[in-house]
Sequence to fold (532 residues):
Amino acid sequence: MTVLPTGLDPESPDHRANRAAMLAKLADLDAEHAKALAGGGEKYVARHRARGKLLARERVELLLDPDTPFLELSPLAAWGSDYTVGASLVTGIGVVAGVECLITANDPTVRGGASNPWSLKKALRANDIALANRLPVISLVESGGADLPSQKEIFIPGGAIFRDLTRLSAAGIPTVAVVFGNSTAGGAYVPGMSDHVIMVKERAKVFLGGPPLVKMATGEESDDESLGGAEMHARNSGLADHFAADEPDALRQARRIVARLNHRKAYDDPPPAEPPKYDPEELLGIVPGDLRTPFDPHEVIARLVDGSDFDAFKPLYGTSLATGWATLHGYPVGILANARGVLFSEESQKAAQFIQLANQRDIPLLFLHNTTGYMVGREYEQGGIVKHGAMMINAVANSQVPHISVLLGASYGAGHYGMCGRAYDPRFLFAWPSAKSAVMGPQQLAGVLSIVARQSAAAKGLPYDEEADAGLRALVEGQIESESLPMFLSGRLYDDGVIDPRDTRTVLGLCLSAVHNAPYAGVRGGYGVFRM
Fold:
């Protein structure tokens, strides 16, 4: 039998304490998500509604098929910055007329939907996801273009937005723009470079320069409607392919466009799958509040995969890394999950072989992170930990099957790379509220700096200031702790969102479904040189 047993006791003190700590983190997360949902605040939401307009998420909801999920991406973008949480943009994956699509929607209640540096990063990440997974892109547009005070951070890299739209189209991936209001300056190129364009009567305004700029540049007097109104573009310029009476009509027309795209997934959807045998509610109590305390990742896997059925690979070798085969919502996956944090030479070699096998069989890989990195010390250095860790990282970097990563606990040092962190281009990467990621743990990093400072003082023959050292360690530990937290990392788009552990199976199912829109094949060779 390959059904995973469970040793979890939901009534144990440890489980109860872990659950309470996780629920507290989820409450903090909900409060930050609420900031994104609030947009520009009550004043600007009321002003927007007074104009008879729908909010960004209401537009998305009307666009989607009824009773289908929407996987919102990067909802905490710009967290911890001077900009509004969410970065004035909603992005995510949803089903429109039976087709999985990548949807972006400007939030005009936040500075008129203007793009700031984090909006740009969020939009570019969404485009990357669309291109990798061959997802049609629907842009719900209402934006004044670049946020001018931050133009120095937007103008140069911002051209990639338009480059991406043309590349999507060239790759046969449909792009649809629905213009609800202003789409000015650089924003005018979003409809200009989309395959299909819908504009709302007496609302849409698409022009490179508005009446004030035209007046300054040419002396010409003009008005919004004659310069860039929906009817003008439908009748005269030809930029509008479809002329909508109002917002609901525009969204109806967008659904009809998608229905007639003849866009098909590369793979058929699998049949309905058996759910896990254990309660996903129990996921809340698995990860300890103190990440130095190990936990068994098999308890997580048992609550994610179909029927809790997991075929372990090399279960007695390299036991700090669990590897094996399963299905998740009917999709085959290979799973790598850190068991006791540290990666040794055995785990590294095991991982490299497992990744090669997944590529031979064209099976996507799921990485479940809880690692402090690769083992250090004289014995391990002499045993080849550098070359063996490099072997694992090489395998991850050159693997061509889709990768999905979830940070459950720690994800430190080069272990973050070996487990397919952001720099290794996983198709999707999510984090639990319990996750932390940095070059190393706060105490370790502060300790290293302290040792270096002591050695420097000794080399100079100077006395060492213990009081200053204690202050420095406390300062560094506090800084690294705050910069390791998932909301900080998510704010910088180092993940695609912080998720409730209970939603993990659903989120992974949506990701796997999206992944199977595009054909893929594992690498059969081409790993470069493995140091043996």
Q: What stands out?
A: The radius of gyration is 25 Å. The longest strand covers residues 175-184. The longest helix spans residues 13-38.
